[in-house]
Amino acid sequence: MMQQDHRKDFLNAIKKIKDLDSFSISRYADGEASVLKNLTVGNKDGWLYKKDKNLKFRSDLRKSLTCIDENFIYGISSRNADEKNYSFLRKFIKQDLKYVTFSDIWVNANYDLFNELFLPTLNETNKNITIITNPKASFSALQKFIRIKEVIPVKGNCVVFWEKNREYFKALLDLKASLNEKEIFIVAAGPFSNIIIHEMWSVNRDNIYLDIGSTLDPIIFKRQSRDYHKPNHPHRDFVDKW
């Protein structure tokens, strides 16, 4: 159960991982909101959504917001960080507020604690981890912290990738979700992460699916891709508030 408290929700998520409680965290912020508004939008990670062109992707992203399940946690923009998108995203979610938290649950003022606890907690579960992300990622450094079972690649622009490979990739996600139980999947694929997690949760609710965004970029891409990665940046002190 989430309390809309930045630190408490983070610690609750860490405890659920440690206890191997089956749950999902799927996070939506300005990028996802822009897709839902049908605005042309992209970012430095290489994904691009084009207005009126990628409507299949938009439709599936919207559907990923419709889950009603006490173990499916939605993260959305906070009021003090992005009030307009907070209000916009709230309209799409049917979940009780007890199962909604911040899209920034892992970052900003929680990022130091994320670096301290996240990978060690994954390691303590003694589970092999499946990662779904861009194949350009390097996993040699990450393997020092966790046991990587498999990497499922999402190549190039995730929006185009999904629209071109939708049926095959749905079947692949079905395969991976249905053949595992109490497994951990971490997903870093831009707004596509939300679709992936919703698809896999629909197949098997006995796993853990976590949208980790850009949190591990300094390890797997060897770059500080976000301001919160920088130790002395003000974002490292920013506490999201409901």
Structure keywords:
16% strand, 9 strands, alpha/beta, two-stranded antiparallel ribbon, single chain
Report on this structure.
- There is one protein chain.
- The protein is an alpha/beta fold.
- It is built from eight helices and nine strands.
- The strands form two sheets. It has a seven-stranded parallel beta sheet with strand order 5-4-1-9-8-6-7, sandwiched between helices.
- β2 and β3 form a beta hairpin.
- α6 runs parallel beside α7.
Number of domains: 1
* Helix-strand topology string: HEHEEHEHEHEEHEHEH
Strand order of the largest sheet: 5-4-1-9-8-6-7
- How many helices? 8
What percent of residues adopt helix (DSSP H or I)? 25-40%
> Structural class from helices and strands?
alpha/beta
- What is the distance, rounded to the nearest whole angstrom, between the alpha carbons of the first and last residues? 15 Å
**Proportion of β residues?**
15-25%
Indicate the overall shape.
globular
Strand runs, count: 9
Largest beta-sheet details: 7 strands, parallel
| Poorly predicted tracts of residues | none
Structural Rg: 16 Å
